[in-house]
Write a structure and sequence with these properties.
The protein is mainly α. The chain has 18 helices and no strands. The chain has a single domain, classed as Orthogonal Bundle (Farnesyl Diphosphate Synthase).
């Protein structure tokens, strides 16, 4: 990845835009945009509700600008720490931003406020919660990512867009157990992803749930979060509980196998996409039964 230049020519602008694109972690875009799709599908009761303009606006915001905000703030305040992070050597980039790049990150936060303005007031707490956690996860004064267990809990930010989308479409709040299950799922996801960073984080003096517990106990913590998530969803709908059970099974397999956790970490976009797709298809078939669309 080339260093961002401070020139004003077209090449400099292309460098900045390319850098912002890589900074936004395209591999993980659907971690924020995917819950919008699921929330809309689960909340809708008619075909027309699937295609509300607000749904598309939320999906567009959480596909790219929200990721620029989330990971831009992260990279700004982790610039020194990331000098020890091996993930920044190939799949990600280290902070190289200038004032224009920083302004783009701030603009993406402002766009989030604008996106919230398109939704009913019942969705505002969820969207406000996302913007708050997206910033304070990495930024002072709270910087949740450096406090064991708060780093895990604060990652509920990933499911807040989906809850907001559900509220927009359904006109009501989702079941509390579904929110709890989704939040527990994000806690497990975050902490599992922190396992490859244990040594770099310790070297940099960063305290996380994973550095506090150590690798073996972190596996247990992740499994407990995901098992609790599956149980919570199972109370809402046993089919959801059965589907979410793939996660504790997966972490148990990784912990007991010779597969490097750093390698398994990069499989999660595919796993999450598969699970999200199945949930979405199941919800869509409730609206339009499968036998009505088959030839």
């Amino acid at each position: 990845m080339s260093t961002v230049t401070d020139g004003s020519d077209s090449n400099g602008l292309v460098d900045r835009l390319t850098y912002l694109l890589v900074l936004s972690r395209p591999r993980f875009w659907f971690y924020l945009a995917g819950p919008i799709v699921v929330g809309v599908a689960v909340g809708a009761s008619t075909v027309d509700e699937l295609f509300l303009p607000t749904n598309f606006a939320l999906f567009g915001y959480f596909l790219l600008p929200a990721n620029v905000l989330l990971y831009g703030v992260n990279d700004i305040f982790d610039a020194e720490v990331d000098t020890e992070n091996p993930k920044k050597d190939d799949r990600e980039v280290r902070w190289q931003g200038d004032r224009l790049v920083t302004a783009a990150v701030i603009l993406c936060g402002v766009l989030g406020v604008g996106a919230a303005g398109l939704t009913p007031p019942a969705a505002w707490p969820w969207l406000a919660g996302f913007l708050f956690l997206a910033v304070e996860y990495s930024a002072p004064p709270l910087r949740f990512k450096t406090t064991p267990f708060l780093d895990s809990i604060s990652n509920g930010l990933y499911i807040l867009p989906g809850i907001a989308a559900y509220v927009v479409v359904a006109g009501t709040q989702p079941p509390l157990l579904a929110v709890a299950g989704a939040w527990l799922w994000t806690m497990g996801m975050h902490t599992f992803s922190a396992i490859p960073d244990i040594e770099p984080d310790r070297a940099a003096g960063i305290r996380t749930t994973a550095t506090a517990l150590g690798e073996r106990r972190t596996y247990g913590y992740v499994a407990a979060c995901w098992l609790a998530a599956a149980l919570a969803f199972g109370v809402v709908d046993f089919r959801l509980g059965a589907l979410l059970a793939v996660y504790p099974a997966f972490v148990a397999w990784v912990a007991g196998s010779s597969v490097a956790v750093g390698r398994a970490y990069w499989w999660f976009p595919a796993l999450n996409t598969a699970v999200g797709t199945l949930i979405t298809l199941g919800a869509l078939w409730e609206i339009v039964p499968l036998w009505e669309v088959l030839p």
